[in-house]
């Protein structure tokens, strides 16, 4: 069963169970996937995952904003929705694995200082796209280039 089919099925189950938060976020993602399919044609699994990751990123950002605004109730709602979406995503690489890939990239491009950050990030994200969180990759690249 494809990711889109699974999301549609789970949306139907959530609606039947009257789980409004789960059904709501799944409907949003299903609409995002449908819009992307209309725009680009048939989506690969990688593209579908990218769309879901985008929605997770939006939820993370809104959680931060809600916490700053002292709206813990809304932050908890978005955190629950984020957990729902994370079930559809493959597990991201850990920090140790990303460190290893970044070290290899730094060696391969011959980076020696922070002025090489752009080249290293481009090459690292090319290897790690969809497998690691971009902010983690950036932090590791900065740390390794500074040392």
Describe this structure in words.
The radius of gyration is 18 Å and the shape is globular. The protein is built from seven helices and no strands. The termini are far apart. The protein is mainly α and 147 residues long. It has helices at 3-16, 20-40, 45-68, 72-86, 95-109, 117-128, 134-146. It has two domains: 3-86, Hypothetical Protein Yqey, Chain: A, domain1 (Orthogonal Bundle), CATH 1.10.1510.10; 95-146, Arc Repressor Mutant, subunit A.
Question: What labels would you give this structure?
Answer:
147 residues, mainly alpha, Hypothetical Protein Yqey, Chain: A, domain1, Arc Repressor Mutant, subunit A, 7 helices, 78% helix
Short description:
With about 150 residues, the chain is mainly alpha-helical.
List the helices and strands and how they pair.
Blueprint: H1 3-16, H2 20-40, H3 45-68, H4 72-86, H5 95-109, H6 117-128, H7 134-146
Helix pairs in contact: 1-2, 2-3, 2-4, 3-4, 5-6, 5-7, 6-7
User: CATH homologous superfamily name of the largest domain?
Assistant: Uncharacterised protein YqeY/AIM41, N-terminal domain
* Oligomeric grouping of the chains: single chain
Q: Bin the helical content.
A: over 70%
**CATH architecture level-2 label of the largest domain:** Orthogonal Bundle
Mean pLDDT: 90
Derived structural class:
mainly alpha
Residue windows where pLDDT falls under 50 for at least 5 positions: none
| Order of SSEs | HHHHHHH
Write down the overall geometry: globular
CATH class of the largest domain: Mainly Alpha
CATH topology of the largest domain: Hypothetical Protein Yqey, Chain: A, domain1
Number of separate strands: 0
Specify Rg, calculated over alpha carbons. 18 Å
Query: How would you sum up the major sheet?
Result: none
Number of domains: 2
Beta-strand content estimate: under 5%
**What distance separates the N and C termini?**
46 Å
Secondary structure tally, helices = 7
């Amino acid at each position: 069963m494809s990711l889109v089919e699974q999301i549609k099925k789970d949306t139907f189950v959530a609606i039947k169970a009257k789980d409004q938060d789960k059904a709501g976020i799944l409907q949003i993602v299903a609409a995002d996937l449908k819009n992307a399919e209309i725009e680009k044609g048939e989506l690969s699994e990688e593209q579908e995952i990218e769309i879901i990751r985008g929605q997770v990123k939006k939820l993370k950002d809104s959680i931060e904003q809600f916490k700053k605004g002292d709206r813990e109730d809304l932050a908890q709602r978005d955190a629950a929705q984020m957990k729902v979406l994370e079930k559809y995503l493959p597990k991201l690489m850990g920090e140790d694995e990303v460190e290893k890939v970044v070290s290899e990239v730094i060696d391969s491009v011959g980076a020696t200082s922070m002025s090489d950050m752009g080249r290293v990030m481009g090459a690292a994200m090319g290897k790690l796209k969809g497998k690691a969180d971009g902010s983690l990759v950036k932090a590791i690249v900065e740390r390794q280039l500074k040392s």
